[in-house]
Design goal:
Two copies of one chain form a homodimer. Chain A has 286 residues and is α+β, with helices and mostly antiparallel strands. Chain A is built from nine helices and twelve strands. Chain A folds into two domains: 113 residues, 60s Ribosomal Protein L30, Chain: A (2-Layer Sandwich); 143 residues, PurM-like C-terminal domain (Phosphoribosyl-aminoimidazole Synthetase, Chain A, domain 2), CATH 3.90.650.
Chain lengths: 286, 286
């Protein structure tokens, strides 16, 4: 059984439309609050050689990326830490604080627990004007499909391409880009944490249209042979770029790197170079 | 090293006043939002014999209790679940949803992860009018000290008093009570998750006064010999009652059970029957 099968089960227990986006959306005065929670733990999420500071940074970056993908501005982060060794706490908290500071958020609290395996759950809150909120649903045939930067870099580092270690260990959530794209009026957006192919399938699940990409246009990780790079860009996990759809006239958006990789189509399918694209990538398995 | 020593370390990394309360406080239009996150896991938090439904209920109750302790109304809950076995998910989610429904909150999302040991992190959001927010800081000499119900019941169940199993396994957060006490204008409040003695020491740490209780006035768990009951009421963990201070004229508050157990004093100390009260109770240890 994989994560997405379990998500379907959850859709029978809580309102399914609540599960469509990277964040929950909550009324907050005349603005909207978005909220996201993410669990990471040592075995599956923290690569060998990662420092405690980097673990704290990454746990925070993951939730800030979710906030960015809604077009929202990050506000507060809470961190629940299941600590295996107390001496790790300082590095983790400093990494989380520094990531918050770098992206305009504040670390405001959390919880501590003793745990056999280091486990960090970050919860992020952000705000956005209602007209600037971007959801996964909203793509329209004729829109371009684009991403904010090279794909597959984190997976490239895991495959031994050390020049990409920094992207793997100290990921940069696309906060400025998410805000710019929300302001510009993109039609649908999400972050690509489990690989481009799975993300496109996630968009397919909530939109009444399809997505056709041209793998020749994918921004690939530097220094990796092209065939391997394309595989990593399609199916590698750990990227923090945003994937979005937009009416063609909107691009370029000032200050936002955007690589057009395809087009939204009427037929409800995912095509890569005209052929169906596998639904595979990074999934938790039990 | 224990949890509270690590909290002091955290106070050197993030604003210490952020750590004083059960929830973080965040501006939200003309109201305030409160946010709390709590990590529970099988070994230390879920008693033997607890069902998955009860684990989901308890994880949710813990965060709703934090919200109640600020005088706020619960709004939304996010649940991050580190699952050891996929077949446990349905029960956990249904327990969380049912606890939300019972107390006027909505389960709006979360995250799923595969984990060796069942780990649940609940994050709760609530709102409150600024003038009704209650913090741990605010007690004044002359205030009465009170609790909303019997103490030590959860620990009594762990000690084998089966009549208290329901209080242990299906705790009831004091949401209605917290709202009523916030409206009435109590001066300081928190929930008693780690025992009365530790909670009083937590109040001492953030107030410029002291706390004197009369152990003869403690509401004890039914069916437990008095000496043991008093020990459980002072030092047992797992209770979900609220501890608060209030000007004497405020009580009784309509619809809120309140047991006066002592009085706020000028001297910065904790006294039980006139003698210093140990700072002990439930603490995570590494």
């Amino acid at each position: 059984m994989d994560e997405r099968s379990l998500h379907r089960l959850i859709g029978t227990i809580i309102a399914p439309e609540r599960l469509e986006d990277d964040c929950a959306v909550i009324p907050c005065g005349d603005r909207l609050m978005v909220a996201s929670t993410d669990m990471l733990h040592e075995t599956t999420d923290f690569p060998a050689g990662m420092t405690d500071w980097q673990a704290g940074w990454m746990a925070t970056a993951v939730t800030l990326s979710d906030i960015a993908s809604m077009g929202a501005a990050p506000g507060q982060v809470l961190l629940a830490v299941g600590l295996d060794k107390p001496e790790r706490l300082r590095g983790i908290m400093e990494g989380a604080r520094d990531c918050c500071t770098a992206f305009g958020a504040e670390l405001v609290g959390g919880d501590l627990d003793a745990h056999r395996e280091l486990t960090i759950v970050s919860t992020g809150l952000g705000t956005v004007a209602p007209e600037r909120l971007v959801r996964r649903r909203g793509a329209r045939p004729g829109d371009v499909i684009a991403v904010t930067g090279p794909l597959g870099e984190a997976q490239a580092a895991l495959n031994g391409y050390d020049r990409h270690r920094k992207e793997l260990l100290e990921p940069q959530p696309r906060v400025k880009e998410g805000l710019g794209l929300g302001r510009a009026g993109v039609s649908a957006m999400m972050d690509i944490s489990d690989g481009l192919a799975l993300s496109l399938h996630d968009l397919l699940a909530v939109n009444d249209c399809g997505f056709s990409i041209d793998t020749g246009r994918l921004p690939l990780p530097a220094g990796v042979p092209e065939d391997e790079g394309r595989e990593l860009a399609l199916y590698g996990g750990g990227d923090f770029e945003l994937l979005f759809c937009a009416p063609p006239g909107i691009l370029p958006v000032p200050g936002v790197e955007a690589h057009v990789i395809g087009r939204v189509i009427v037929e409800r399918t995912i095509l890569a170079d005209g052929k169906p694209l596998d639904r595979r990538g990074y999934l938790h398995e039990w």
